[in-house]
């Protein structure tokens, strides 16, 4: 007698994949997102570049004393990412974890288009830009080899 291999349904496979993603998200790095910030993406990227790859304490100090427009909002976002990491990893102390900014990127958001009066009956378009910021905070202990290369680059 032949044993008939039972084929699993697509819905079951889909559910299993979803559950696996949820389980992986509970232990990995913490992601915080900030959407529709009324600043141009170019200005926000200047501030984001300052803290990319830095340890969390140093990044917070940089943002606290940075005079640029986006710094206070990024500081608040970084604090949110840290608290999200603490919520995921209740068994590890924050001081022992040695957190760093693993990834940060700024995408363009929606653009509000306005018209401004110009000479001789014309109109000029004003584009009020906004942006979306995504910040990933991870522990240095688990990803040791990954960060050492970025630390070498910052020292040189």
TrEMBL record:
Q: Which UniProt keywords apply?
A: Ribonucleoprotein, Ribosomal protein, RNA-binding, rRNA-binding
Q: Name one Pfam family in it.
A: Ribosomal_L22
The ranges of region (Disordered) come to: 1-36
- Ranges of biased composition (kind: Basic and acidic residues): 13-22
**Bias (Basic residues) ranges:** 1-12
The biological process GO terms on file are: translation
Q: Which GO terms describe its molecular function?
A: rRNA binding; structural constituent of ribosome
A GO cellular component annotation here is:
cytosolic large ribosomal subunit
| Family that this chain belongs to | Belongs to the universal ribosomal protein uL22 family.
Self-association or partners: how does it assemble?
Answer: Part of the 50S ribosomal subunit.
Name the UniProt record assigns to this protein: Large ribosomal subunit protein uL22
* Name of the encoding gene: rplV
């Amino acid at each position: 007698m032949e044993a008939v291999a039972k084929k699993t349904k697509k819905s079951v496979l889909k559910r299993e994949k979803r559950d696996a993603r949820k389980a992986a998200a509970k232990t990995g790095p913490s992601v915080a997102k900030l959407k529709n910030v009324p600043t141009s993406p170019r200005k926000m990227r200047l501030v984001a570049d300052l803290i990319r790859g830095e340890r969390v304490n140093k990044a917070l100090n940089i943002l606290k004393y940075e005079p640029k427009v986006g710094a206070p909002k990024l500081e608040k976002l970084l604090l949110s990412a840290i608290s999200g990491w603490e919520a995921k990893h209740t068994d590890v102390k924050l001081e022992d974890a040695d957190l760093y900014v693993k990834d940060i990127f700024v995408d363009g958001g929606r653009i509000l288009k306005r018209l401004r009066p110009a000479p001789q009956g014309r109109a000029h378009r004003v584009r009020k830009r906004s942006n979306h910021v995504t910040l990933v905070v991870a522990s240095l202990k688990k990803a040791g080899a990954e960060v050492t290369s970025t630390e070498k680059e910052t020292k040189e």
